[in-house]
Amino acid sequence: MKTVDRILQIVKRDGSVTAKQLSSELGMTTMGARQHLQGLEDEGILSIHDVKVKVGRPTRHWSLTQKGHEQFADRHGELTIQFIEAVEHIFGKDGLDKVTSEREKLTLQNYRQHLDQCESLESKLETLVFLREKEGYMAELEQDEHGFILIENHCPICKAA
C-alpha cells in the first residue's frame, strides 16, 4: 500500500494526527511525515488546525476534509438500489409503487410548505430551484419570451431511479 493511502487510513481511524504521531506509526522521519501531510493539505484532502499546549508552540494536527472523506468507499447508492429491489421482490410491483408514492407525497408536502409562502410565480420557481439545488439537482431557472424554464443539470438519485 502506498504511503499516502496508509496516511489517509490512519487519519480516518484516528480523527486527527500530528506529524510526530504519524512518523512513529509509519517508521519515517517527522519531516517526511510533515511533507506528506502538507502535500495532502495542498490537494484539499486534509485540513490543519493548531492545538494549544501548556508550554511552547501549539501542536499542529491534520484531519480529513470532505474531499478526504470522499477518498473512502461510499456504498449508500448501492444500498439504496438493494433496498428498492428487496421491496419489489418481497411486496411486488404494487408494494414498490406504494413506497414510491409515499416518498413523492412527503416530497410534495415539503415543497408546498415552502412554496405556499411565496406570492408570485417567479418567487415560487426561485424557491423550487433553491430546494432542488439543496437536494443536489444543480437546478437553475431561465426566462425567455415564452416563460420560465427550470433546468436540472444533475440527477442525484439516478442510480435508484
UniProtKB/TrEMBL annotation:
Under Gene3D superfamilies, the record lists:
Winged helix-like DNA-binding domain superfamily/Winged helix DNA-binding domain (1.10.10.10)
**InterPro entries (UniProt xref):** WH-like_DNA-bd_sf, WH_DNA-bd_sf
Question: What is the protein's given name?
Answer: Transcriptional regulator
